[in-house]
Amino acid sequence: MLSNDTLREAPVNADYDGCQYVGIDLHRRRSVIVRMSGQGERLDTVRIDNDPVALGLELAKAGPDPEVVLEATYGW
Mean pLDDT over residues 13-41, rounded? Predict the structure, then answer.
């Protein structure tokens, strides 16, 4: 069983300072956030509990003005 902490599925590339794209797969209790470079390189994948602070911290890793895509389906 997964913990409610972040689950890392790809290596974190904290040194990347170019434009980043963020995809969020929003679920009822937890969501998956993927950060990618402009060249399509996956920089980070995390699973978070849905919490405004946790979401804000993950989005802040993408730097200023990232492009964000949100997928929210049934129940939202």
Answer: 87
Confidence of residue 15 (pLDDT cuts 50, 70, 90): low
Digit-coded pLDDT (tens) for 49-72: 999 999 999 999 999 889 999 987
Could you state, in order of their start, the residue ranges of all structural domains in the chain?
1-76
Spatial contact of 45 and 76, defined as CB atoms under 8 Å apart: no
Sequence-ordered list of residues with C-beta below 8 angstroms from that of 4, at least 6 positions apart, any chain: 30, 49
CATH topology (fold) of 1-76: Nucleotidyltransferase; domain 5 (3.30.420)
Q: Which amino acid is at 71?
A: E
